[in-house]
Amino acid sequence: MTTYAPQPGSAPWSRKVLAHTRMEFKLLARNGEQLLLALVIPVGLLLLLGGTGLGHRLPLGDGRPVDEAVPRVLALAVLSSSFTSLAIATGFERRYGVIKRLGASPLSRTGLLAGKIGAVLAVQVIQLAVLIGTGFALGWQPAGGPAAVFGVLLMIFCGTAAFASLGLLMAGVLRAEATLAAANLIYLLLLVGGAVMTPVDEYPAGMQSVVRLLPSAALANGLSNSTVDGIVPWAAALSLALWAGVLGYLVSRTFRWD
Amino acid sequence: MEIDNLVVRYGEKAAVDGLSLTVTGGSVTSVLGPNGAGKTTTVESCEGFRRPDSGAVRVLGLDPIADHDELMPRIGVMLQEGGAWSGVRALEMLRYVAGLHSHPLDIATLVDRLDLGTCGKTPYRRLSGGQKQRLSLALAIVGRPEIAFLDEPTTGLDPHGRREIWQLIRDLRDDGVTVVLTTHAMDEAEQLSDHVHVLAAGKLIASGTPDSLTEHGTKSLEDVYLALTAPKREN
Lengths: 258, 235
Known about the structure:
The structure holds two protein chains of two kinds.
Chain A: H1 13-29, H2 32-51, H3 54-57, H4 65-95, H5 98-103, H6 109-137, H7 146-173, H8 176-193, H9 205-211, H10 215-229, H11 234-254
Helix pairs in contact in A: 1-6, 2-4, 2-6, 4-6, 4-7, 4-8, 4-10, 7-10, 7-11, 10-11
Chain B: E1 2-10, E2 13-22, E3 28-32, H1 39-46, E4 54-58, H2 68-71, E5 75-78, H3 90-98, H4 107-113, H5 129-141, E6 147-151, H6 159-174, E7 178-182, H7 186-192, E8 195-200, E9 203-208, H8 210-213, H9 221-229
């Protein structure tokens, strides 16, 4: 005979975060649209730019097209997983009452956010493996050795913090449908106008000072600095950290459980 | 659970307007009232989803907003609708929520009790209304809470299903769980409740045991409720 006698208590924080990370990752892996954003578009773009002659015709930078394309496509992948996918998924979680249900569970706000970031990082590990593998298959020759590896990891960490904060902010203040539309729109706008695929120097002179301030420009240029120039992009990291600080503060002010 | 002079406003309108009530531990307490009476807002204030404009709410001696992380493991909440990812499977969701608690109920026994075995692998969006209700109830009690807030727990269930849920609610109470029930089903409130609170326009208009409110069974609770909440006509 089952007893329902109260015996409440929370699981350890690490177990809750792991459970949430695993759940979000599983749900994302079942979602075709999310996989399109996370992998199909970046891989397709890398193949186009690095494996065909198209890279020679576009203003990617001064180096070999594949060397210039890999860091910029990595930036796009970080943007898609940490911002677009996260914003859309969180917006619909709010719509379906999932956030409310979790708000009445032992998960806690920090557990929810850590679990979400964990799922994003798990996706990024796969993105990195696939894109770097594709890059090497296309003849990518990164410069810089350990400094480049550190620079890439630093950029992914700072970029994820900044863009995940932006995604969570949007999902917190907009309706689910508006989040879906706005996240896709911003993704496209940054892809074209945010210095993700094209260096800031290639933009019209009047735009450069504004474009340079965007987090997408910091992320893409920082990744490019790491693997093309072989230097650790401290300035880009600082820029992204500032974005993450401001946006993270706004998330903490606007986040609600219902 | 103690609510003292609670006021919650949406813009200019007071959804809850100076409400005070107490829920005794280990009982089933029903909160009744017409649509818009303030039932959901009152319960959501106890669950930490609404911040009072004035007044105080204490649940298990804790403030639902300030002590959110301390309180949540100790309560169970059944939402009126939703509360699960559209693509998550029923059993997967139940295991996930159970995993957030330190001493959850045995999943297999709970699945059997709530007849969720046949839909365990079905995505949430494909569950029937009754299956969603039963899953939502399972999610509310799987953590072995001290208080379970159940929002219309039998809506959409057939008569057999209703009776099974009623018996489960009685078992919860008998095992020491405090149950706070919001419902429009007067027979449900009459059958299950140790105490009934009736709200209208954000205020408490009647309170008592079903026996006292029905004058020792000489009236039905539905008749009492209709008389209490009848719209006032102007001549």
